[in-house]
Automatic annotation (TrEMBL):
<dbReference type="GO" id="GO:0046872">
    <property type="term" value="F:metal ion binding"/>
</dbReference>
<keyword id="KW-0413">Isomerase</keyword>
<dbReference type="InterPro" id="IPR000056">
    <property type="entry name" value="Ribul_P_3_epim-like"/>
</dbReference>
<dbReference type="GO" id="GO:0005975">
    <property type="term" value="P:carbohydrate metabolic process"/>
</dbReference>
<dbReference type="Pfam" id="PF00834">
    <property type="entry name" value="Ribul_P_3_epim"/>
</dbReference>
<keyword id="KW-0479">Metal-binding</keyword>
<dbReference type="GO" id="GO:0004750">
    <property type="term" value="F:D-ribulose-phosphate 3-epimerase activity"/>
</dbReference>
<protein>
    <submittedName>
        <fullName>Ribulose-phosphate 3-epimerase</fullName>
        <ecNumber>5.1.3.1</ecNumber>
    </submittedName>
</protein>
<dbReference type="InterPro" id="IPR011060">
    <property type="entry name" value="RibuloseP-bd_barrel"/>
</dbReference>
<dbReference type="InterPro" id="IPR013785">
    <property type="entry name" value="Aldolase_TIM"/>
</dbReference>
Length: 85
């Protein structure tokens, strides 16, 4: 699991350097266990999830992007689409 925000509370901004960390981790895992998942926690939103998926992540914690929205199902559907699930 990679944290893409500073731990502590929800709604923080996404830390861009997590993208490179994810790419590096994906390359390392591909050598020993290509089926291993990479989980990203924090800052996941429709704006960031596609880039994280492209960097190799495939498990996402998206709290603030969903909670507080009028239509949870629509937001979840949009996020899944952007993550190419």
């Amino acid at each position: 699991m990679l944290m893409s925000v500073n731990p502590g509370f929800g709604g923080q901004g996404f830390i861009e350097s997590t993208l490179e960390k994810c790419r590096t981790l994906r390359a390392m895992l591909d050598k020993v266990n290509p089926e291993a998942g990479i989980e990203i926690d924090g800052g996941i939103s429709p704006k960031t999830i596609g880039r994280m998926a492209e960097a190799g992540a495939n498990i996402f914690v998206a709290g603030s992007a969903i909670y507080g929205q009028d239509d949870y199902a629509a937001v979840i559907q949009e996020i899944k689409k952007l993550a190419k699930y």
